[in-house]
Design brief:
Blueprint: E1 8-11, H1 22-29, H2 35-52, E2 57-60, H3 67-75, E3 78-80
Parallel strand pairs: 1-2, 2-3
Amino acid sequence: NENRTRVILLSGAGVFSSGHDLKEILQNASDENESNHKLFTLCSDVMCLIQQVPQPVISLVNGFAFAAGLQLVCSSQLAYA
């Protein structure tokens, strides 16, 4: 099928970052709720999914890569900076 996706490109606008609100994560660390656990589980699921898709995943990094953004880059098969 010619319409089949052959490659997946991940790109950010300048800085490759997760966009997490670190103050919110720290605040939730003292709470009894599971919001941080859900957040980190979701991040882990995305990183695993990147490894499982049949297409190569290429990260197009146009600047610095921080936090979970760097994890995305490291999870991809190729980083182009």
